[in-house]
Design a protein that fits this description.
This protein is mainly beta. Helices cover 12% and strands 52% of the residues. The chain has a domain of 98 residues.
Length: 176
């Protein structure tokens, strides 16, 4: 039996999650490495929807899946960032888990870039797969606060899966 999640359900969950993250909270002192160690800064959490490019995958698992990423900025320059991240794109039985290094350039509020890495996953036929992963990024910086929000459209290429795991991801990102 085909089980499909309504896109509005996923979007509502995304709005509630981001709202909870951005809720008012007590002010913090400026970053002090003795109080806020290096590893506690520059993390990005992205959550949204994933649409597989393969018609076969969409017929088997439904049209819309989940996309989530946890990234950390490891280098920041005036017009680009270098990030390392671990993600999840897919459905309950067909998915990819990419580990990527992304170069994200920014000009005013526009974000664009690319990334490369390795992915582990499961194909339509239930067999595991792994291979090189590439992604293309086009996004927009929504806010410039202490914890900014951004919206990204990413396209993932996953080798070794006959394009079953390739697809689009639309995510809202939160920096903490």
């Amino acid at each position: 039996m085909k089980r499909s999640v309504a896109p509005w359900t996923i979007l509502l969950a995304l709005v509630v999650a981001i709202g909870g993250l951005t809720a008012a909270r007590p002010a913090r002192a400026q970053f002090d490495t003795s109080v806020n160690p290096e590893l506690s800064r520059d993390w990005y959490f992205r959550l949204g929807v994933f649409v597989a490019q393969s018609n076969t995958t969409r017929k088997v698992m439904g049209d819309v899946g989940i996309s989530g990423t946890l990234e950390r900025r490891v280098y920041a320059a005036s017009n680009y960032d270098l990030l390392i991240g671990l993600g999840y794109n897919g459905f309950d039985k067909v998915y990819s888990i990419p580990l990527l290094i992304n170069l994200v350039l920014h000009h005013h509020n526009i974000r664009y870039g690319l990334g490369a890495g390795y992915s582990f996953g499961k194909r339509d036929n239930g067999k595991g797969t792994n291979g090189v992963a590439l992604d293309l990024i086009l996004g927009y910086q929504l806010t410039h606060t202490t914890n900014p929000l951004s919206l990204d459209l990413r396209y993932f290429f996953i080798s070794g899966s006959s394009n079953e795991l390739d697809g689009y991801s639309l995510t809202l990102g939160y920096k903490f």
